[in-house]
């Protein structure tokens, strides 16, 4: 098609009124999915020759592909009516009527697509599938090959940080946003949604944005929040609300007319932004944007698509990273995130997620040995409380730092030995670790046993705060027909937290068993018996800590 288009273009440049070459190029454009270009050529043939039936036919097909049934009907009413075209139009009309009755937002979706096509957007192999009015996905209308560009959204359709900076209120916000706001970029783009809600240019996009926000935890009912008893996630919801309240107060303080928008409307705008924003580079300048249609792709890992801004096309582009079969849903990846982050910022949880965490809070107080002497290491009272994200990646700095902090607070020997352990760690890593406790080398086998026992105790205490067990949550989740979408997400979140805690209890108990062994050979033999090669997730700890402590003995 590309070769043919180049050929026809060359001849059209030589003879601009040649309807044969114009209509052939239009057919090529239509086949490639460039409907606006095809329509332009088809309409020109009709202007040149009002009796050129093929021009009407191709124009009608173009309008039909762009969901404009009225215009398709108009151009199908030429003197040589095409029965196949008429049947196709009737089929599309029936589908529109049926889906409009089933989903109240479907007519808005049709308007949305028509507007995108006016800007020469490109997505011929994609269609939006409605699961409900507020839950949609993107399906493949045809087979898609790996590396194929499946979507092009021109720059004029994007709403970027720069779009907002250009407005009067955007200029005012830019003066204080980075100093005063918890989420400056999100607040800036949220202001655009609020101020420009009735802006005709973007109304087609704004009208299709979700209206129901009940799946976001900050809007959970008291009954739904009760299910979260024992979970640290309740505190994360509280912090999110407090951050939003603080940002709303600052926006009202510096922009007096911002009070016209209620706190509820501000929260809804913030959630829309945080769940739809894309970070891109335009001409080597980093910015954040809202990209209509692109933000309708649901999440799945590994990703099936990649997105970027193409400076040559001056457009936001989505490209397939694998073959996708016709009829299948097309997914984007929102990145590796915990279920807590997915639920807080996107309003959903994954049934299978290998990136879950549990935030363990440890307070260093006078109950720990040598408290007064160790207290000198801290700059303020706030430093005595530390939070660590537990996950199953023992290469993560958070896990190394957690174990180091426990070694520090549980050490009860000669304080000089502790100083030496800290100093040797500093020299080894060539960085200051005194205040961060990034890495304190294990001092003795006895201390490491205390560390593992204490960590196990902390995890058991955290686990005991939940009113239900993992198995009870699992059984409730199996009865999917009788639980709400929000309860499903709550159960998945609770289960993910309990899995992490149970994993660390197992880790501690297993390594305590290893530390009872006398030789490295015994440790390696047990390890190879219990696990296949490289199948033990905390093999790093065994290699770097357990084996060395047994060897030192």
Layout of helices and strands:
Blueprint: H1 2-14, H2 19-32, H3 35-48, H4 53-65, H5 69-76, H6 83-102, H7 106-118, E1 126-130, E2 136-140, E3 149-154, E4 159-160, H8 161-165, H9 168-174, H10 177-180, H11 184-195, H12 200-206, H13 222-226, H14 233-254, H15 263-274, E5 278-282, E6 285-290, E7 298-299, E8 305-310, E9 315-320, E10 329-332, H16 339-346, E11 358-363, H17 371-375, E12 385-390, H18 397-410, H19 415-429, H20 445-464, H21 470-478, H22 485-515, H23 520-530, H24 539-552
Parallel strand pairs: 7-10
Antiparallel strand pairs: 1-2, 2-10, 3-9, 4-6, 5-6, 8-9, 11-12
Helix pairs in contact: 1-2, 2-3, 2-4, 3-4, 4-5, 5-6, 11-15, 18-20, 20-22, 21-22
Structure, explained:
- There is one protein chain.
- Helices cover 54% and strands 11% of the residues.
- The chain is built from 24 helices and 12 strands.
- It has a 4-stranded mixed β-sheet, with no helix packed on it. A 3-stranded antiparallel β-sheet has the order 3-9-8, with no helix packed on it. It has a 3-stranded antiparallel β-sheet with strand order 4-6-5.
- β1 (126-130) and β2 (136-140) form a beta hairpin.
- The model is unreliable at 427-435 (pLDDT under 50).
- It is elongated and about 100 Å long.
- It has 553 residues and is of the alpha+beta class.
- The longest helix is centred in the last third of the chain and has 31 residues, at 485-515.
- The protein has helices at 2-14, 19-32, 35-48, 53-65, 69-76, 83-102, 106-118, 161-165, 168-174, 177-180, 184-195, 200-206, 222-226, 233-254, 263-274, 339-346, 371-375, 397-410, 415-429, 445-464, 470-478, 485-515, 520-530, 539-552; strands at 126-130, 136-140, 149-154, 159-160, 278-282, 285-290, 298-299, 305-310, 315-320, 329-332, 358-363, 385-390.
């Amino acid at each position: 098609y590309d070769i043919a288009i180049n050929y026809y273009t060359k001849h059209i440049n030589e003879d601009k009124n040649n309807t044969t070459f114009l209509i052939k190029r239009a057919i090529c454009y239509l086949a490639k999915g460039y409907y606006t270009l095809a329509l332009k050529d088809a309409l020109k043939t009709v202007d040149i020759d009002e009796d050129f039936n093929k021009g009407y036919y191709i124009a009608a097909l173009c309008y039909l592909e762009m969901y404009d049934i009225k215009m398709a009907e108009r151009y199908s009413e030429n003197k040589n009516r095409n029965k196949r075209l008429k049947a196709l139009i009737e089929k599309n009309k029936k589908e529109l009527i049926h889906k409009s009755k089933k989903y109240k937002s479907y007519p808005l979706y049709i308007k949305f697509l028509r507007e995108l096509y006016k800007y020469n957007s490109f997505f011929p192999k994609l269609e939006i599938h409605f699961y409900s009015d507020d839950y949609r996905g993107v399906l493949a209308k045809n087979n898609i090959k790996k590396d194929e560009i499946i979507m092009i959204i021109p720059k004029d359709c994007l709403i970027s940080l720069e779009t907002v900076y250009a407005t009067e209120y955007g200029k005012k916000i830019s003066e204080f946003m980075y100093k005063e706001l918890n989420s400056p970029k999100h607040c800036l783009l949220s202001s655009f949604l609020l101020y420009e809600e009735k802006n005709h240019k973007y109304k087609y996009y704004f009208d299709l944005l979700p209206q129901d926000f009940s799946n976001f935890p900050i809007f959970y009912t008291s009954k739904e929040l009760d299910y979260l008893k024992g979970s640290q996630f309740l505190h994360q919801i509280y912090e999110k609300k407090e951050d939003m309240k603080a940002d709303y107060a600052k926006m009202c303080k510096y922009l007096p007319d911002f009070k016209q928008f209620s706190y509820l409307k501000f929260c809804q705008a913030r959630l829309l932004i945080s769940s739809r924003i894309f970070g891109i580079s335009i001409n080597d300048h980093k910015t954040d944007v809202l990209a209509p249609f692109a933000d309708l792709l649901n999440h799945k890992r590994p990703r099936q698509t990649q997105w970027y801004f193409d400076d040559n096309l001056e457009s936001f582009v989505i490209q397939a990273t694998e073959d996708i079969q016709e009829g299948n849903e097309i997914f984007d990846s929102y990145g590796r995130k915990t279920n807590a982050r997915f639920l807080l910022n996107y309003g959903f949880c994954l049934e299978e997620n290998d990136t879950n965490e549990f935030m363990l809070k440890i307070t260093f107080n006078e109950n720990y040995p040598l408290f007064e002497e160790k207290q000198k290491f801290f700059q303020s009272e706030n430093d005595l409380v530390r939070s660590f994200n537990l996950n199953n990646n023992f290469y993560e700095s958070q896990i190394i730092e957690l174990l180091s902090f426990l070694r520090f607070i549980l050490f009860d020997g000669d304080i000089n030995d502790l100083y030496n352990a800290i100093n040797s760690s500093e020299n080894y890593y060539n960085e200051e670790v005194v205040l961060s406790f990034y890495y304190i080398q294990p001092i003795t086998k006895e201390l490491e046993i205390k560390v593992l026992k204490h960590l196990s105790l902390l995890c058991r205490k955290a686990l005991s705060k939940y009113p239900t067990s993992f198995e009870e949550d699992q059984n409730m989740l199996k009865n999917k027909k009788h639980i709400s979408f929000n309860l499903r997400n709550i159960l998945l979140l609770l289960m993910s937290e309990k899995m992490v805690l149970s994993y660390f209890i197992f880790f501690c108990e297993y390594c305590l068993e290893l530390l009872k062994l006398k030789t490295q050979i015994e440790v390696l033999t047990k390890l190879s018996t219990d696990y296949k090669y490289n199948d033990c997730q905390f093999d790093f700890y065994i290699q770097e800590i357990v084996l060395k402590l047994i060897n030192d003995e």
